[in-house]
Amino acid sequence: MGMLRARCDRDQTGSGTAIGVAIIFPALMGVIVLLSMLTGSARIEQSLQSTANRAARTAALCCHHTGAAEAVVHAALDAAERTATGNRIICSNDLVADSHVLFTDVEGNAVSIEPESVVPPGGAVYVRVTCQVPPEALGGVAFPGLDVERRAVGVATVDPFRARSGG
Amino acid sequence: MKTSAAIRRRRCDDARGEALPVAILFVGVLLTILIGIHVLVVALARTAVQSAADAAVSAAQAAPAGDREAEGMLAARRAIAGAGASVGATKLPIVTVEPERGVVGALVFGAVNTPVLGTLHLTARACAPLDDVPAPQLTATDAWEC
Fold first, then answer.
1. Is A51 helix (H, G, I), strand (E, B) or coil?
2. Which residues contact B66 (CB under 8 A, 6 or more apart)?
3. Whose CB among A63, B49, B50, B68 lies 3.0–4.6 Å from A68's, allowing a Cys bridge?
4. Least CB-CB distance to B125: which of A43, A86, A166?
5. Predicted confidence (pLDDT) per residue in B58-69, tens digit
6. pLDDT tens, residue by residue, A3-13
């Protein structure tokens, strides 16, 4: 009789385990979806960062004037947006319109961006890129109302001794 | 009139029926954990391979005209070797310079062992204009595409 009760108790512990596992299982599924979304977001941010860095570096090296350098940055962002399947920059906003280019001189003061405004030697170029990531791009799960915005800032120093080819 | 022992035995028989669902759920949880690890491992490897491609392009951009491919390949191999915990190199990276377009491109290959799908091969690509490209050419998107 005692043995039967002991066996019975042991079998009934399975009920609690089943309920516990049934609760944990959906939570783990949620963790997978979350991981997938986070990694997707991280990849897009990585691509954004490298695009911003590359655009800033080229803008710092290419031109005599800030207006021409800004046009180079816009071309870089436009190309990044067009080749979205290759570089994972999938944004629902206009990357060029929502970007911001800033030139500063050696003292950190902003330099205006105009066709005749000279690129400040020894200063820096900041390219800030903002991407509104569509929910479908994050792990393939389209949660309604999920609004993810990723930002990247690329910085490059303006080399005062470099020969510039245009602008 | 059933005895209390018979009722208890009946209850015990019912409870034993839960062994199969528990086993299924247990396997499900294990599989879920493995998929989670897979997602993380693949994401880390992709990030590492893409970083290697970016490093190759940056090195090739700044290198002198004759050394661009070699410098790019070296940078990519060192980046992949540095990320050895996340990804392994499978083939030599390819760095191509297109002087007429003024573009340098890098293609980096890697592989990672995942707990769900075994060995997964990854490829990353990056492109950028060369440093000595004339400024008017840089305002065209062609100079920025692979």
1. helix
2. none
3. A63
4. A86
5. 999 988 888 999
6. 545 455 555 55
Per the CB < 8 A criterion, the answer to whether B22 and A21 are in contact is: yes
> What strands lie across the sheet with A124-133, from one edge to the other?
A110-111, A100-104, A124-133, A148-157
CA distance B59 to chain A (A): 12
pLDDT at B129 over 70: yes
- Pairwise CA distance, residues B7 & B94, whole Å: 75
Which amino acid is it at A47? S
A28, B25 in Cβ contact below 8 A?
no
- The answer to whether the CB atoms of A24 and B29 lie below 8 A apart is yes
Distance of residue B43 Cα from the nearest chain A Cα, in angstroms: 6
What would the pLDDT profile of A57-84 be if each residue is shown by its tens digit?
999 988 888 999 999 999 999 888 887 6
The torsion angle over the Cα atoms of residues A132, A97, A81 and A49, rounded to 10 degrees, is -70
